[in-house]
Amino acid sequence: xxxxxxxxxxxxxxxxxxxxxxxxxxxxxxxxxxxxxxxxxxxxxxxxxxxxxxxxxxxxxxxxxxxxxxxxxxxxxxxxxxxxxxxxxxxxxxxxxxxxxxxxxxxxxxxxxxxxxxxxxxxxxxxxxxxxxxxxxxxxxxxxxxxxxxxxxxxxxxxxxxxxxxxxxxxxxxxxxxxxxxxxxxxxxxxxxxxxxxxxxxxxxxxxxxxxxxxxxxxxxxxxxxxxxxxxxxxxxxxxxxxxxxxxxxxxxxxxxxxxxxxxxxxxxxxxxxxxxxxxxxxxxxxxxxxxxxxxxxxxxxxxxxxxxxxxxxxxxxxxxxxxxxxxxxxxxxxxxxxxxxxxxxxxxxxxxxxxxxxxxxxxxxxxxxxxxxxxxxxxxxxxxxxxxxxxxxxxxxxxxxxxxxxxxxxxxxxxxxxxxxxxxxxxxxxxxxxxxxxxxxxxxxxxxxxxxxxxxxxxxxxxxxxxxxxxxxxxxxxxxxxxxxxxxxxxxxxxxxxxxxxxxxxxxxxxxxxxxx
Length: 518
Hints:
The chain has 518 residues and is of the alpha/beta class. Helix 3 (132-142) packs across helix 10. Mean pLDDT is 83; it is low at 1-113.
């Protein structure tokens, strides 16, 4: 639920609203299984009413197939409140993003299915761009939060990356911005700033990934927004902690990879040439860290009633990530060695060449090595002190990897896969970007479902990897067109049709796009 509603005083999230103005009747059936009568609650603010509908669409009072609506609430508003309506996207008949086992709740009144994610009712204002922030907020949206992506009038730059069917809908954007609604605002104009502050006033979380100094210049720093919404979780994902000399420096994935020794480690394990990891590793890891920090902050707020500022710096996050593996003897003072995890740094730690391709194998613990010795008939290695114990293998890791490389060249990939699977030795194929789509496990679990985007047609999506036994999730929105939900979001915030038209006329926002496909 978005907030508990007290029928005696019309309290939503602890805020009291006067009993006047526009009203809508909403029925709570909580506790009806105990034989209690339904309670009718009146909510005089359309934005709160819309949030209640979106959180609990099954609990409206329906009369003759239509909701009972007070004056000033239009039928179109109700239709757009549902994440399941054709105005958004109905994926129920497509391949699922999640398996449906334990993934839906049944309404005790209608018997219909209702998706309830663990973050249902949490409202997130997403002021992030590129990868790090959008990846984090997509995950929050996948988990059930209502994520409102606030974009510039030109949109997130990732809309322009990669091959597209339509301008502004590139694959990087599509794969990092589902489970969101989009609005575009010019925050440098006073009316744009005022509009986003009205959105923030009823939000639970704000996420941004520009430097804090930029937020201050926009007059959207924590000192400002916390006065408007003291319960807000104000989460910043940016380059560096704000108590050090790098505080105001810009940061990107490549820069942080370099600053946390990853290219040096790549050079040490290959041909001596420093290279970046061919993946936005920093953006993804810091994004994941942000999700954990935001969820922890929400738990703290539930306990105390207070919001807070949360900083998630890229440099410090990745320094801990990399050095957690490679601190080694540098852990001690004075140091015992120059650091580095020997197994990770072995030049022979790589997929093994077979007689017809490559295979990924790791023989790690003593039981696995015993199974490997039996499966390959290498009793000689069992008696070799370099192979016989974990300690011996750790000290002689380069020799171990080199011997394994020679062994794996003697059979085909298929032969090794069958042999090692039977021996319970960990083995996996070495995929490329195309073959992974056909991996039998991912095919069986529908990890890459092909779904129908409202404007982009059939696209390949990715399933949410986590699953819950009680709070199931099923993302119902694919990545939006720029400002696709702008008018809807402004209406929910209490803007009138004339006010929205004025914002469009003054260049603060744009008209909502035509979301029909070609």
